[in-house]
Design brief:
Layout (H helix, E strand, L loop, with lengths): L1 E5 L2 E6 L2 E4 H4 L8 H6 L1 H7 L15 E2 L8 E5 L3 H6 L9 E4 L5 E2 L2 E6 L4 E2 L2 E7 L15 E8 L2 E2 H5 L6 H4 L6 E8 L11 E6 L2 E7 L7 H9 L9 E3 L21 E6 L3 E9 L1
Parallel strand pairs: 5-16, 7-13, 8-18
Antiparallel strand pairs: 1-2, 1-4, 1-13, 2-3, 5-6, 9-12, 10-11, 10-16, 11-13, 14-15, 14-17, 17-18
Length: 278
C-alpha cells in the first residue's frame, strides 16, 4: 500500500491516481493523516477492500506523509561509511537526537537558508504505526506503518561549534525535515532491509548507498527506542545517513541559494528540495 497526503487528506495511491480515504470508507477513517495512523491496524486491514474512482493528483502538491508527528527521532552515526569519513568511533548503541516536529515539511518544498553552513543528509525514514513501549524484536516490524524519504538538513555551525553542541536545534529550523512523497508499507518491498538511497544536488550525485549497511537496522532501532520511550502512531524516525555529506569535504561544501536537492529511494519515489536565500 502507498499512502499519500493530498491537501491534508489521507489517500491511497494507486497506479491510476488516488482514492480519498474518508470518502471510500464512508467516514470510518480519515480525513487527516493522523487519524489514519491512530487506527493503523484496522485501517491496514480495510485497505484491500477500498473502492472508488481514482483521482489524478499533481505530485508537486503532495504533503508530508506524517505531517503532525508527536515525536521525531534521528539516529546519528548509523552507517559505517559515515562514521569513518567523520573519523568517529563506531557506536555500540544508537546515537539518538530529536528533530522538533515544526521542521517537518512535504516532498516538494522551498527551504530558506538561515546561514552559510547548511548540510544535506539523505535518509530512509520510518513512520510508526501501532508503536508501543518495550516492543520485542519479533514484533518490531509490526509496529511500523511503513517507509518514506527524508532529508535531515543541518546547520553544522550551530550543531558543532558552540560551547555545547546543539544537535536537535541545528536540525529543526523551518523546513529542515522534508519528507515524502508517499508512505509505502513494508510488504511492498522484496527486501525491506535493503533499499537504494540517492542524493543528487544540481545534477551531481552526492550520496549513493543501500540501507543494508545500517549499523542499527530498522527493527533494532524500533526495539532500542521503545526500551526508553513509548513510540506513538505517526511518529517519524530518521534512520541515519551514509558518506558524502558536505561537512566532510575538503574544503567543506554547504548548500547555496538556488541549489536543488533530489532525494530518492527505489520503491518510494523522489522528492525535490529547493534552497533560497534569506
Amino acid at each position: 500500500m502507498k499512502l499519500a497526503n493530498v491537501h491534508g487528506r489521507a489517500a491511497v495511491a494507486t497506479d491510476d491516481g488516488v482514492i480519498d480515504v474518508e470518502m471510500a470508507s464512508e467516514g470510518r477513517f480519515g480525513p487527516s493523516m493522523r487519524s489514519v495512523y491512530d487506527q493503523w491496524s484496522a485501517f491496514r486491514d480495510w485497505v484491500p477492500s477500498a473502492t472508488g474512482t481514482p483521482l489524478t493528483v499533481d505530485p508537486a502538491t503532495l504533503g508530508a506523509p506524517s505531517p503532525e508527528p508527536r515525536q521525531v527521532f534521528g539516529v546519528g552515526a548509523n552507517y559505517l561509511d559515515h562514521v569513518e569519513e567523520a573519523r568517529a568511533t563506531r557506536p555500540t548503541t544508537p546515537v539518538v537526537f530529536t528533530k522538533f516536529p515544526t521542521c517537518i515539511t512535504g516532498p516538494n518544498t522551498v527551504v530558506v537558508l538561515p546561514s552559510a553552513s547548511i548540510d544535506w543528509e539523505a535518509e530512509l525514514v520510518i513512520v510508526v504505526g501501532t508503536g508501543g513501549h518495550l516492543i520485542p524484536p519479533e514484533h518490531a516490524w509490526d509496529a511500523i506503518a511503513g517507509f518514506t524519504i527524508g532529508q535531515d538538513l543541518s546547520d553544522r555551525v550551530l550543531q558543532l561549534n558552540y560551547d555545547r553542541p546543539q544537535f536537535s536545534l541545528a536540525k529543526s529550523l523551518p523546513g529542515f525535515g522534508p519528507t515524502g512523497p508517499v508512505l509505502v508499507t513494508t510488504d511492498e518491498f522484496a527486501d525491506p532491509d535493503t533499499m537504494h538511497v540517492r542524493c543528487v544536488i544540481n545534477g551531481r550525485t552526492r550520496q549513493d548507498f543501500t540501507t543494508d549497511r545500517l549499523i542499527f537496522s530498522v527493527p533494532n532501532i524500533i526495539v532500542e527506542l521503545s526500551k526508553i520511550v513509548t513510540l506513538l502512531p505517526g511518529d517519524i524516525i530518521f534512520t541515519g545517513t551514509s558518506s558524502g555529506v558536505g561537512m566532510i569535504q575538503d574544503p567543506p561544501e554547504y548548500l547555496q541559494p538556488g541549489d536543488e536537492i533530489v532525494t530518492s529511494i527505489d520503491g518510494i519515489g523522489s522528492m525535490t528540495t529547493r534552497l533560497v536565500g534569506a
